[in-house]
# Entry
Amino acid sequence: MARSSLKLLGLAAVALAALPFGARAQQAVAPSTASPVEGWDEFVDSLRDLPERMLARLPEAMRQDPQIRAEIGRIALEAVASSSIEAIGSDPTAPVFLPAIGQVLNVGQPNADTVYKVAAVDPAQGYRISGRKGSVTLAVIAQVLRGSNSRPHLDLATLKTDAEGRYSVLVAPTRPEGYEGDFWQLEGQTRRLMLRVVSSDWSHEEQPTVTIERVGAPMGRRRPSAADLTAKLKGLPQAIGTIAPMFVATVQKLADEGYVNRFKVMVPPEGALASQFYYDGVYDIADDEALVVESEVPATCRYRSLILTNALYETVDWTNNHSSLNAAQAAPDSDGKLRIVVSSKDPGVKNWLDTAGYPRGIIQGRWTGCDSQPIPKLTKVKFKDLAKALPRDVARVTLAERDAIVRERSRAYQERALW
# Structure
């Protein structure tokens, strides 16, 4: 090689070495062309303006808030992860209940006491769901119908069990002739089954086991076709683009209706658990303020809870904070009324909902299978005056006792079948 050519190469190497690493990578790699994977470019392109589309649903002040912008990025990632897990793992020929939403995949405002999972099904096929019931408050499977919000539900508590507490139910388009076991008809538009496992006493309730298998065909899972893999990849932009921005403006909309520090009856969406009644209200309090939730308690109730969300409708982390309460965690006071304090600082009151640093969000209550549905009242007080708004004998805890309670919450929650 000529000496002049070597000199030019040397100068180019020195110039390249002086560039930052990222710039070097750009110089070293030729300009990208269309992806050889069909559907990949569309998927990547759909993510570029996803945060912008989410922020567009919010007021200007929120759009310009760096903290809110970063949290929008988190929700976008949660939507990508949740949708991608289903796209990768769902297969109606070899179904399995996959994690859907929850503490990590915190999109769609998961209930703190509920573990959510989904399984793909083919309505022309038959399946068997089996396992042990356990002793949780609720374990319900819903059929998610394509093109409809109507969702038939199967309550595992209604199924027969053998001497070992095991159940088995056939899920199929039609009941086989002569079949006498538990049967659940699979609707023609059903493509997914959603499992909700609701636990009140996390430490002591026995979690159910739920398995699913296809019947009427031999076991085995063939290599997925290129067409099937491509279809799943091409379906991701719509799935992510639907769920990511769906709820980010929920808190602001409720505030615009005037439900700040007061409750509104929420009409349950189709597909909600049977006999479930909701009420929502925006909490908006400063560090030196608190809210007191006061309510009558139904005489009979299968499940009740109160949870918090942040301003973007993500559920406040309930395993590392005292940020949700159900019947096993929050008892009424001696006069029979349920009182719960919402604040950023620990008030030393046992029934406390910790905002965990979020000054604004939603308090959501649920009454499920109850003989009445009272709407609690909310009273805002100065934190220093909180004692005046509570009974003298209200249940209290020390900081050490609170820490032990939250540690047990975290431990017990992690023992549940989350993934």
